[in-house]
Structure formats: C-alpha cells, structure tokens
Design a protein that fits this description.
Blueprint (H helix, E strand, L loop, with lengths): L17 H8 L1 H12 L2 E6 L2 E6 L2 H10 L4 E3 L3 H8 L8 H11 L5 H6 L1 H14 L6 E2 H18 L7 H14 L6 H10 L3 H27 L7 H9 L14 H32 L1 H15 L13 H13 L6 E5 L3 E3 L2 E3 L4 E4 L1 H5 L18 H5 L19 H16 L2 E5 L7 E3 L3 E3 L4 E6 L1
Parallel strand pairs: 2-8
Antiparallel strand pairs: 1-2, 3-5, 4-12, 5-8, 6-7, 9-12, 10-11
Amino acid sequence: MSSRRNLPPGPGNNFPGQQLLAFRRSPTDFLTNVARRYGDISHFRLGRRAVYFLNRPEYVKDVLVTHQDNFRKGLALERAKFLFGGGLLTSEGELHRRQRRLVQPAFQRQRVAAYAEMMVRHAARVRASWEGVREFDVAREMRRLTLLVVCEALFGADVRADADAVDEAVSSVIRRFQLFPTPWSIARRALTKLTARASRRDATTRDKLDAIIFRIIRERQRGGAGGNDLLAMLLAAKDGEPGKDFEPCPMSDSQVRDEVITLFMAGHETTANALTWTWHLLSKYPEAEAKFHGELDAVLAGRLPTAEDAPRLRYTEMVFAEAMRLYPPSWILSRRAVGDYEVGGYALPAGSLVIVSPYVMHHDERYFPAPRRFDPERWTEASSASRPEYSYFPFGGGARRCIGEGFAKLEALLILATLAQVWRLKAVADEPVELQPGMVLRARHGIRLRPVRR
C-alpha cells in the first residue's frame, strides 16, 4: 500500500456547501460533468463528506467484485433501514450471505420461468383495461402492474385492493429520500420532527406498508405455511423447519417482515421504472418502435407470449437493455471502505466513501458513441462483446448483484410483448421529462402517454 495521501483531482468549494448544492440541483448532471472534466477518478466534498468517484469499468469491477470484501454499503443506509429494517438490501457480512442463500431458490431459473403465465395474465388484464382510456401516467400503470406480479409470484398474495395505498406510500418515501441532505434540509427535518404532524406522517408511511405486509404474512400462516414461493420459505425458516431448497435459519417475525418488504419494494419499483422509460423511449423513436412491433407480430402471430418465446424476442430484449442503459433505475451505488484501499495510483484511507454510477458510465461516449441516442442495435451480440465488462451494470455486481435480475428481465419482456401486441403508447406532450434521481431514477412528474390501438 502506498503511503501517499495525495487526492485525485476534483471540484473545490468557493463557498461552504457549493458542491453539495450543485449535486442536489441535479445529481446526474453534476456527476457527469465531474467525470468529463476530472477523469476516471475524482474527489470532492459534499457537505462534510469526502467522496471518491470512480468512472472506469476496471475500477467499478474492483470495488463491486474483486475487492468487495473491503467494502460495506454506503449512502443513506440508516435512512433505508427505517423502511427496510435488516433485510437483504441493508444487511452486511455473514448475515447478508445467509439471507441471500435463503432467498436465492425463489429466483432459480426454473422457478422464474414458472411465473411467466401469471406475469402474462396480469399484463393481459391491464391491456384490456386500457380500452377507452384517453391517456394515463404510464409510470403509475407500470408500478401497479409490477406490484401485482411480484406479490403473487413471491408471496402468493392478491393486493389489487391495496395497490393505490402502496403506490402512495412508496411515492411518499421516494419523494423524501435524500442521498446527501443539505444543512438546511437537516435543520428543517429536525424542526418538523418537533411537530406532531410531521412525526405522524413519517410513521404513517411505514405503518401503511407494514399493515399490508403483516396481513399477507398472517393470512398465509392461518392457511398453513405450505407452498413453494418465497414467503413459504421464509416462514419455514422462521419456524426452523428443514427444507430441500434452503438451510434452516430461525427468524423472528420482524426479520420475516424485513425480507418481505425489501423484496416487495425492490421487486416492483425498479422494474416499473425501467418499463416506464422503455415506453417513453419507444414513443419518441418510431423506427425502433416499428421494428419492435414487427418482431412481436412475427414471433407471436397474435397469441399471448410464453416463457419459451423469450429467447426469440431478441429485439425486444435489446430495446429493454437500451432503455436501462439510458435510464438505469439504480443510477448510483455507494460503498464505504473497511480498510485502506488503493486505486488508480491513489491511496484511499479506511472509511472513505466511494461511489460509482451506472447512469454516468452508461452515458460515457468511450463505450457508447452518441450516448444520449436511443439505439437498441448497440445490443447485438457483436456490439456487446466489443465493450469492456462493467461499462454496463444496471443490476450492480458481485455479491450484491440484484438477486431478482432474471425475474425482472423475463417480467419486462413478457409485459412489453403482451401490451404492445395491441397498443402503441404515444406521447401526450413534447415537453422534456424531468429526472428525479433519488432512491431510484424516476420521472419527477410521471410520463403521460396515450394508448392507441395498432
């Protein structure tokens, strides 16, 4: 380990909090500009936090995979724990490895394929509901749809009656989530916590979600904890019962709740956002949309898609991959170094906050020429093979790579195919869509589209 403590280049502060304010105005623009000006490794301060920003595929792999044991979760961990508790998203070390082993069987390839009929059934129901609809917020439509899918697949639950309440509660959490709060926002939050109204609002958001989660758990327990879905595995592990697909791992009621709400949230919010951006891009690029529809017509010939169709829907897969390049739901990843760490000739002391950004990397013209253009042809086999590993990482990497990646990809493919067999979604207005980079990369005011029969 080098003894040098020289800092990488980066923007300074002409006045206290300058870079923090710039980051808060537009995090994606801020990080993109820093990478362009200062290179693959940079350093800056956001408030009192010193941040190291890495924007080179080899560095990303080094942090997420090669030296992953030297890093722990970084930004906003405590705020995330308020909602997710000690679930898979927030846990660390041996606990995280044990939880991942427990949950992994629910996402095995064979089981994911078995969910296909249910995914298509929900999508077909939504497809029929668009008849006679003038316009809608496609972000809300996709969140409701993916919520129904994940709850039935993983928990055997029908939450149609709760969909609006869940969407309102989740949106409330996301609106208030801040990666780097400013001193003013910290002071304001401290002040508002003194009022009963603010305290009730924060508690009510979590309580609404908890009420739904615990109802799902109680209903399963009353009906017997049998079944082959994720909730059955969690309840069996809670009771210490042996099972062929997992190691017994006694869990408390609160631990079951934490795992359920983590996958409940992550399993629908990220996929819904990726689908939202996909529809938005298809509405803006008619040539890609026409090729997409042509593939659906040729492969499906009017029938509903199945899991067996997925490998043949190659262009549809390319469309979705390109949408996730331009608008990755998990747009920023952060880690805190456990021990000293050397990268790019710089020595980072233990405790350093390191961030990498799929959004910034995916817009780097070294790997993606004309990076703001929607071009599904980037994802031909030859084009993909020409780019370095971790120039594209919408699902993260290493031990914390998204456990539901296969589920999300199949779900998105089947939803896109089912809905687009009948409908084109056209933009209602020409105004640019404003990004809302927070817990996930949302469209700040949603995206209004008009369904038009093909």
